[in-house]
Design goal:
Blueprint: H1 3-12, E1 30-37, E2 44-51, E3 56-61, E4 74-77, H2 83-93, H3 96-103, H4 108-113, E5 115-118, H5 125-137, H6 142-149
Antiparallel strand pairs: 1-2, 1-5, 2-3, 3-4
């Protein structure tokens, strides 16, 4: 998309600009997973991967030149990451749990409606993200609290 096209579609509504400001993929890179949030500008954060000599290089990128990233944003592996490894890497680099908490403190249904995960390579990526959010914000049962107090 050209700069003029990007500007024109952004005038319709900023949400149409989601993902437009992600860094360009290097020649040999693929976007293997992304998380989109329902912010005004439809922000997207992604994991890019490329093969190297004897390993796979991964990097997490955002649309803000890395300003929303908080942890380690690059890693390598000899084999493709498992779904859990990918999710751990992504969520360590970009704090989805903090983002949903900041936007919808205590409202789990709203949190779950605020984001979506997408991957052509990891079919259960969105499902695992939802499990992680639910786990982070599930209410502790009263019986469990009592047991811990004793």
């Amino acid at each position: 998309m050209t700069g003029a096209e990007r500007k024109a579609i952004g005038k319709i509504h900023p949400v149409f600009m989601g993902g437009e400001y992600l860094p360009d993929l290097d020649e040999t890179e693929l976007s293997i997973a992304s998380i989109s949030i329902q912010s005004t500008t439809g922000d997207v954060t992604s994991v890019y991967a490329r093969r190297g000599e004897g390993c796979i290089h991964y990097r997490v990128v955002d649309e803000y030149g890395g300003d929303t990233l908080t942890g380690v944003t690059e890693r390598t592996s000899e084999k493709p990451l498992s779904l859990g490894e990918l999710c751990d890497f992504f969520l360590d680099a970009w704090p989805l749990i903090d983002v949903v908490q900041m936007n919808y403190e205590g409202d789990l249904d709203a949190m779950l409606g605020f984001f979506s995960g997408d991957s052509e390579f990891y079919a259960q990526f969105d499902e695992l993200l939802r499990e992680r959010v639910c786990s982070a914000f599930s209410p502790v049962e009263e019986d469990e609290e009592e047991d811990e107090a004793e």
